Amino acid sequence: MTESDDSIGQKINLKFAFFVARRYLFSKKTHNVINIISGISAAGVMVVSAALVCVLSIFNGFEALVGSLYSTFDPDLKIGPAKGKFFDFTDAKIQRVISFQEVAEYTEVVQDNALLRYGDKQMPSIVKGVSPRFEAMIQIDNIMYDGEFSLSDGAFENSVTGLGVAAMLRINPYYFMPLDIYAPKRSERVNMLRPDKSFNTVKTFVAGIFKVSQAQYDDNYTIISLPLARSLFEVDSTAVSAVEIQLKPNVSINKVKSQIKSVLGEDFVVKNRIEQQESYFRILNVERWIAFCILCFIVLIASFNIISSLSMLIIDKSDDIQTLKSMGANETLIRYIFLFEGWLIAVVGAAVGIIVGAALCLVQQHFGLLTIGEGAVVDSYPVVVRFSHIVLVFATVITIGFCSALYPATFAKNVKRDMKH
Fold first, then answer.
1. Cα–Cα distance between 347 and 395 in angstroms, integer?
2. SS3 content of the chain, % helix, strand, coil (to 5)
3. DSSP class per residue in 193-230
4. What are the pLDDT digits (tens) for 120-135?
5. Max intra-chain CA distance, the chain
6. Which of 69, 241, 368, 396 is 20 to 30 A from 129, comparing alpha carbons?
7. Residue 357 near residue 52, CB atoms below 8 Å
């Protein structure tokens, strides 16, 4: 017999094994308890598959929600120095980057830590100096909570604080009370006799309060004009701590990032939105896959029902096994029949579970039946169903189901005719 004939014979055996397994799955067994256990096996796989889809979709929803919140304040790309705090904005490489046709807006940034004092209250804050382009780049009106975004009115320097900062200092943008900002002098040593002389001080009037619904910004940030920040932190008139870039719509951020990195070289760091909040998204990703692994372990436990179901089915079909052997079926064919049987239980359970899970997610997405509670950014749990995760769940469940069927299917060849009597 040629190799081609062996291959054809193998395909015929697989098709026959699949046909018999399918008949066994949906046909009535001699003992009704086997039907019940098979149903329980499929139901267990279905429930866990639905749970996997729902859990992954909820994590996707939170990731998308947080990403949208950060997008109102974080730029598409942020360029910073690889070493030190500041770099020269007039650098030829930087000027070449901001002239890319994919760049819609950009702003220079001078940012560092400082101390705020308003009346008799004080607190540390991150002070961010920005150019006039900043207002158009992030659509500032979308995040203004009170007052207006004005960093200079020609006569006075203004500032805009986060909601948490305003609450801590009890700031009201309609009070004509200055906000004092202190930063250590870079060019002098600390004067122990007169510590107040070791700080640069600027006065601003709070023109507005912003709210991003992220504590990282609302509780820590104060925005001032770029020239005032350079004066406060004693840096050159062309020095910046970062350049924030907003790209045009429908532009590949990662592609432009690669182009910028190739131009800037090793002296600069370029980060997209996820990399700017790397620690948060890393934690979210770890939590997602820990939950996935826990549910996979539950799938593994549920798959023991498949082992029980197959074991009882093998005993119930012992006469059929002997008949097939008498007709010339080899041990491999017998093993394939029950291997496919267990695999089909997992496939049916996974398919139905994924459909149920996706349906529940769509219901939650449109009607928000499962609520979070008061004080949250959104009223109900956000969900985003991703096709890649559905494929992952299906592949994981049927793989576990297939492996669970290996043990009982291996011993199907040893079943004797009188085992069930």
1. 9
2. 55, 20, 25
3. S-GGGGEEEEEEEEEEEE--S-HHHHTTEEEEEHHHHH
4. 999 999 999 999 889 8
5. 104
6. 69
7. yes
Burial of 102 (0-12, 13-18, 19+ CB in 10 A): middle
Q: Among all chains, which residue has been given the structure tokens 């001080």? A: 201
Mode of pairing for the β-strands spanning 199-210 and 103-118:
unpaired
The percentage of residues in the chain with a pLDDT greater than 70, rounded to a whole number, is 80
**202: β partners:** 181
Q: Are strands 221-225 and 121-130 parallel, antiparallel or unpaired?
A: parallel
Mean pLDDT, rounded, for 232-255:
92
Give CA–CA dist 183/233, Å, rounded.
6
CB 121 within 8 A of CB 127: no
DSSP character for 175? Answer: S
Helices (DSSP H) in 188-330: which residue ranges?
Answer: 215-218, 226-233, 253-264, 273-276, 278-302, 304-316, 318-326
Task: Give dist(CA 395, CA 389) in Å, integer.
Answer: 10
Q: What is the DSSP string of 103-153?
A: EEEEEEEEEEEEEEEETTEEEEEEEEEE-THHHHHTTGGGTEEEE---SB-
Question: In angstroms, rounded to a whole number, what is the distance separating the alpha carbons of residues 245 and 51?
Answer: 40
Residues 266, 359: Cα–Cα separation, whole Å = 48
Q: Tell me the C-alpha distance between 143 and 149, whole Å.
A: 10
Contact yes or no for 186/233 (Cβ under 8 A):
yes
Lowest-confidence pick of 29-38, 60-69, 327-336: 29-38
